[in-house]
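Risk register update: the risk of archive-format incompatibility is retired. Evidence:
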Amino acid sequence: MIDGVDGSKVPSKALPYTMNQSSKVIGCWRAHMNVLHDMVARKVQSKLIFEDDADWDVSLKTQLVQFAHGSRYISGTPQDIPTKSPYGDGWDLLWLGHCGTWVDPWDGRRFVIPNDPTVEPVEKRDNIGQPDMSPWEGQNGDNSTRIVFSAYGGVCTAAYAISLKGAEKALYHMSMTAYNAPVDW
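Archived output:
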């Protein structure tokens, strides 16, 4: 558990030189930077990070097993090759819970999980940047398909896993370079 941060108390010298955001956005950014900094300082190989208001699904363990198969497929790691992580070894960030994502237009690979009873009903899917589900759902589909894919971007940080290498990259790009966006963009 990591404490939240009151963004109004973060000194301007602790921000990227280009950051110009509200105190709420700065507080969220700083809290995530604190998690990543701690991870790098202690050389923690990976972390699973949940927002304090993330909804839990009782099927999370089963979903993560399926997601691991999908992650290994997307990264080109054969299922029978031993790795340090069940998700493969070549990943930086696994975006598990979000309110929108954009599919990488240069990567056509999809890991398809059909008939998943935990998939959000179609009428509840009002997320930003939804992937095209028409090959699996629609008039002839079951409308309960989950896909794992390489993302080009996303919104919200309800839940994500990050590797040590990913944490190092995120810390650099969101604090040492020109950065002026919420942490979950």
